[in-house]
What does this fold into?
Amino acid sequence: MILMCGIVGYLGEKKVKEVLIDGLKTLEYRGYDSAGISVFDGETIKRVRAAGKLVELENKLGSVDFSGQLGIGHTRWATHGKPTERNAHPHTAQKISLVHNGIIENYLELREELLADGATISSDTDSELVAHLISKEIEKTSDLFKAVKDVKKRLRGAYAVLVMSEDEPDTMIGFKEGPPLLIGRGKPDKDGHPTEILFASDALAIVPHTLDVLYLNDGEIAVVKGKTVSLFDDKNLPAEQKWTFLDWSEDVAQKNGFEHYMLKEIFEQPSSFKNAIEAHIDTEEHTVELDVESGLTPDVLKNVERFFIVACGTSYYAGLYAKYIIEKYAKIPVELDIASEFRYREPSLPKNSIVVVISQSGETADTLAALRLAKSEGVKVLSLCNTKLSTIDREADYKLYMNSGVEIGVASTKAFTSSLGVLALLGLFAGKSRGLIGADKEQKYVRSLLGLSAQMESVLVCSSFFEEASESFKKFKGFLYMGRGPHYAIALEGALKMKELAYRHAEGYAAGEMKHGPLALIDEDMLIFMICPKDHLYEKTLSNLEEAKARGGYIVSMGTLEDEKLKALSEQYLSLPEGNEITNPILETLPVQLLSYHVSKALGNDVDQPRNLAKSVTVE
It folds into this structure.
């Protein structure tokens, strides 16, 4: 598996160096350990690279100016080769310079061929090999586009590549198979040509310049020559250019006074959750209307035999919550799979089932592979994404959206709660479609979901409690999160956040599993975070907590209102507003996010860019 790097390319009248550096800064949230740019300077391409953060690259660039109007930039996460300057992108070979996201699976074969042919390979990466292959082809053809076409046929794996040549100073070519790559075009000049053209792996790098974008499909090649964009399909024939105007602005990526993007995004959840669910609700009648945008009609849901929910990481835990809700309210069996395991177990997919894929980015490689497997078996796919026009969104049969806005922090927050809200609506809509939920019950649950934003505002007050307590909490070597029913999904998510941000050992368990192993972990160095609302499993969960208390664990719990029994068993107690089995887990998410955030901050960690992690995983 590799994690997501960042690509930026620019052709235009602005200062190329500044555009590239600013673009790479917007992509820092993806995670990286080195960076570099290549820019035309006179008749040659000048390359500057540095290991470490972008500030190291900026220091090396200093006051250097470039005379050309064309350049490419990259932030790299080390896969093939250590995070050193020699392995940083861009990579060059003779007159070629390129940047690459992804992995070339047949790189060993290609490397041996190039070495046998006398190539001098200066890095440990698979990316440099692509530059050498293109350079070799240009020796035969003297044509960058033809060279790219020929080399592309030889690459196996997943990749997004942006390439330029000293012999064609007005040309930049991008092609992809897997990881995202898009083009933005600036406002037209007096002749109708765009004043600037950009490539990027994420729209965030483009929106300061234009909102007019084109997403490349797998197999396509985009050729920018001067002020003209040409697009070719996987058969090298001219392809239709489907330009889209983005409905957002660059200020979504600002911290707005918060110390970290993650804290800002935690506090945005009352509004992002509201946006997520209201897009799928008739707010006057208090009914669920998923079919308006998704295409998922009641007639479809009446005949569904089984749901398969497939996702990774945080999205997988959202799927676990959905399993409880859908099975309870719609009586449809749900199978839940980690995306990286799904296709390798050779699942048996009934034709009248639906595969639900969840991905914030809409580009997660394993989840996309699961979607394509389902479609190859003739099974319909429902996607839940935060990024419209992402690959998963484009390829799904039915579409739902998180509508949570851009999320910069690597650890997902508002996209998770938005997912829970939309998945709850899916369960209710399926139950209504199958005649299992009447109007009164539907309206009751819809009202409770609509009321969650106000309840979230009140829960966010506990941020100050976790900030104060974090100095003592950071001393614990282990964290054990527990809950039952749909609250088990939140326990798992809480443990994941603690691992991601604080780098502490953390486990999430169904509380009823205490006697099957977790009790052996508990001592005075273990913090127990118990989720125990007043529901039909309350007494059983309370009993599990007493077992943990008896073993010496430090108990932090959250429950419904002023719960004296729970408070008596806990060193610290959080009171949450009264809710139901659908809304309680969503509300419980905010405290577990704040706990991990403040412990991480107290430990001096990089909250927005945790070590070894990136926002999107776009290659297996």
